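Design a sequence for this backbone.
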């Protein structure tokens, strides 16, 4: 509870209350976060203990920090399906900070998780999940504002109309780190950006498995400018613009972007850019994107579809993109290619990976790490049959110094080393192992003893 003890005695009467920043604890000083905010004064820090708080909070224009003691996974503000969870609607500045919460189960017309109007709050280290807006901004609605977001994860939020995770209008934003996972909407599965007033800057943001039933599985940009650096767009899907959709001056500069495994039923597996938009993709990778994924011949541009717009590709890496089943990379206007189209590096080449009877395309390391059966660089799921995970062919598998004829999957399961289906145990001599050979040179001698002594003591 706020106490006036400080103002008695040593502190002179010249000091005003605002010259102190006080720490207020929830629930020890106030049972609810909103009660603490209502009592707080400029500069105060509200520290919230771990727990689930069923309430909606409003910063009331105050220059305060609301932070959790134990981080977002342990400190939850639950909207309970009634209204907006957090509001910034009274001219808050970037000195109004929300740090370290999960904001969940908001339900509203707009901005069910966080609603920001004519304000500039700073939000970091939060998880916004399972919020639902009837219209726009499933997790966050931002209008006539300037927001700073740092390390925010948006997961499983839904908007009926636009921007499953974030809807930004007449606003600028700085978004650093974090990710947008499995959000969905009609347009802009994760983000919808409309009507510029300033830049939308994104750095190191991952857009993964977001979906739009119409346009822009990851992001939809209209009459705005987005600068995206080191962002990843993978596994997003839409009707047009699997990851990205630009419309009416939807301008962007995307540097070191990775566009992998995005899917459009129609146009632009990775991106659809149209109607006087100017978009530059600088040193971006486009790998395994698919357009016209339903192969109904309505669609185009495995990588890009361009209409009345200027699209520049500078030194792009392009591989394994498909229009239905053919490699037809671009449709509509031709992109401007600066430099050359590079192959994706071979070690990162995806291939078909069988897990049970299911198939995914991914890089070999991820496939083996996940216990899948690898079908080789450049293989595609359409060209292999996954037979329930046992793998149809066997090969030599060394489990320590024993060779067994096994499938790759069962070999990996046994933590063995698989030598390939063309190699048999008859032709394979597994390297001998012995426990005392500490440095692995095949001889047990004083070197092993010294290696052992060098690490003598408690295990780290
Ligand atoms: Ca189609």
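Sequence:
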């Amino acid at each position: 509870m706020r106490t006036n003890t400080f103002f008695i005695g040593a502190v002179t009467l010249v000091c005003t209350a605002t010259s102190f920043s006080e720490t207020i604890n929830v629930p020890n000083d106030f049972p609810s976060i909103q009660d603490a905010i209502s009592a707080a004064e400029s500069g105060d820090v509200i520290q919230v203990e771990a727990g689930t708080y069923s309430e909606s909070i409003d910063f009331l224009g105050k220059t305060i920090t609301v932070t959790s003691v134990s981080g977002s996974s342990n400190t939850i503000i639950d909207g309970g399906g009634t209204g907006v969870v957090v509001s910034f609607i009274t001219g808050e500045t970037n000195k109004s900070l929300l740090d370290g919460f999960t904001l969940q189960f908001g339900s509203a017309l707009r901005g069910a998780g966080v609603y920001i109007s004519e304000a500039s709050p700073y939000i970091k280290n939060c998880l916004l999940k399972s919020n639902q807006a009837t219209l726009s901004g499933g997790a966050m609605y931002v209008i006539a504002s300037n927001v700073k977001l740092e390390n925010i994860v948006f997961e499983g939020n839904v908007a009926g109309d636009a921007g499953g995770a974030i809807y930004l209008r007449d606003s600028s934003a700085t978004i650093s780190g974090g990710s947008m996972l499995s959000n969905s909407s009609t347009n802009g599965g994760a983000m919808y950006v409309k009507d510029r007033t300033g830049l939308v800057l994104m750095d190191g943001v991952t857009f993964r498995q977001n979906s739009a039933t119409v346009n822009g599985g990851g992001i939809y940009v209209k009459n705005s400018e987005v600068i995206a650096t080191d962002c990843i767009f993978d596994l997003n899907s839409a009707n047009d613009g699997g990851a990205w959709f630009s419309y009416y001056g939807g301008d962007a500069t995307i540097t070191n972007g990775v566009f992998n495994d995005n899917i459009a039923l129609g146009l632009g597996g990775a991106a659809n850019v149209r109607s006087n938009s100017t978009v530059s993709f600088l040193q971006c990778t486009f790998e395994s994107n698919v357009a016209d994924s339903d192969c109904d011949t309505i669609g185009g541009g495995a990588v890009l579809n361009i209409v009345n717009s200027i699209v520049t590709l500078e030194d792009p890496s392009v591989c394994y993109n498909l229009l239905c089943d053919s490699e037809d990379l671009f449709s509509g206007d031709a992109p401007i290619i600066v430099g050359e189209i590079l192959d994706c590096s071979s070690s990162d080449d995806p291939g078909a990976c069988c897990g049970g009877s299911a198939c995914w395309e991914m890089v070999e390391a991820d496939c083996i790490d996940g216990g899948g059966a690898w079908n080789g660089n450049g293989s595609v799921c359409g060209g292999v049959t996954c037979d329930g995970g046992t793998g149809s062919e066997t090969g030599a598998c060394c489990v320590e110094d024993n060779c067994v004829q096994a499938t790759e999957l069962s070999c990996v399961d046994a933590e063995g080393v698989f030598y390939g289906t063309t190699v048999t145990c008859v032709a394979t001599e597994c390297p001998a192992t012995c426990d005392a050979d500490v440095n692995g040179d095949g001889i047990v001698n004083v070197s092993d003893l010294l290696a052992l002594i060098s690490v003598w003591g408690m295990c780290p």
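Helices lie at 33-39, 364-369, 408-413, 446-454.
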